[in-house]
Write a structure and sequence with these properties.
By secondary structure, the chain is mostly beta strands. It has helices spanning about 5-10, 35-40, 175-180, 190, 265-270, and strands at about 15-20, 25-35, 50, 70, 85-90, 95-105, 105-110, 125-130, 140-145, 145-150, 165-170, 185, 195-205, 205-220, 220-225, 235-240, 245-250, 255-260. The protein has one domain: Thrombin, subunit H. The longest helix has 10 residues, at about 5-10. It starts with a helix and ends with a helix.
Length: about 280
């Protein structure tokens, strides 16, 4: 990948945030890519219509507020405990941060561009996932073991593409048993358009914040909304007041913000690889 990818990612997306080199290199992993031919070969048989959310018994369920851009006071409680602050190191040895969220006991969703260095176009090599994160010394759970990811795009022709900017990450341990996980709903257009959803992510100085808004546009692969987002929010869950995720925050323009719609293509990657 060349520097064009870096420029486009910086200008067009809610980007990851560059950080100083970390003492903790995190767990090493591998990334595979889902091409169009493979996606077209998926079938719906056997794939669940939805996934139920889960909160461990020792976690309090937080009542979701409706204020704009609010700092989360109890990130160790559900559903915020299921949101990961990701510290990523690329094969180029650059470090950056992003957001991800658990959707099964061992599966996390994030944006594909969270897995690539926007300066050098090199893919992630090591990731540390912090859950219930307040600081490097104050969190509910840290995962730094092996992982395996499937990304929806390779960013063809070295250009950012928002149409398949998603990644499924399998963790080697059942992290969700400790953190809980979001449910998943694969919604129809009418179930999305005009309805209110929340985004919670680690924007700005690694602080977890949430904000509510309305879905204003729906396409085959994306949703648009009037929800304010900031750098670091990429990979955040777009979810309802029953803790069901319907999308993944990814990018923005001058007039709106956008996310990946949870859809059959993503569901089938999880089914094929034994995650559902």
């Amino acid at each position: 990948m060349n520097r064009l990818l870096a420029v486009l990612l910086v200008l067009l997306t809610m980007t990851s945030v560059c950080v100083r080199a970390e003492d903790d290199d995190g767990g090493e992993g591998t990334i595979s890519f889902v091409d169009a031919a493979q996606a077209d070969s998926f079938v719906s048989g056997g794939a669940p219509a939805s996934v139920e959310p889960f909160a461990p018994d020792d976690l309090e369920k937080i009542i979701l507020g409706s204020d704009d851009r609010v700092k989360v006071k109890k990130p160790k409680e559900y559903p915020y405990s299921a949101i990961a602050y990701m510290v990523v190191k690329g094969s180029c040895k650059c470090n950056w941060t992003c957001t991800g969220f658990m959707v099964t006991k061992n599966t996390l969703l994030t944006a594909a561009h969270c897995m690539v260095c926007t300066k050098h176009g090199k893919w992630a090599k090591n990731i540390t996932f912090y859950f219930g994160y307040k600081s490097k010394k104050n969190y509910r759970y840290r995962y730094k073991s092996r992982w395996q990811a499937w990304a929806g795009t390779t960013f063809p022709e070295h250009r950012y593409t928002s149409s398949d900017d998603w990644a499924v990450v399998k963790l080697d341990k059942n992290v969700g048993d400790k953190t809980g996980w979001f449910g998943m709903r694969f919604c129809t257009d009418s179930e999305l358009l005009g309805n209110s959803f929340c985004i919670a992510g680690f924007s700005g100085e690694a602080k977890l914040r949430y904000v509510w808004g309305t879905v204003t546009d729906v396409w085959e692969k994306q949703i648009g909304y009037d929800i304010d987002t900031l750098p670091g929010d990429s990979g955040s869950p777009v979810f309802d007041d029953n803790y069901y995720a319907v999308g993944i925050e990814t990018n923005s323009s001058d007039t709106a913000n956008f996310g990946q719609r949870l859809r059959d293509e993503i569901r089938q990657v999880m089914v094929k690889n034994g995650l559902l």
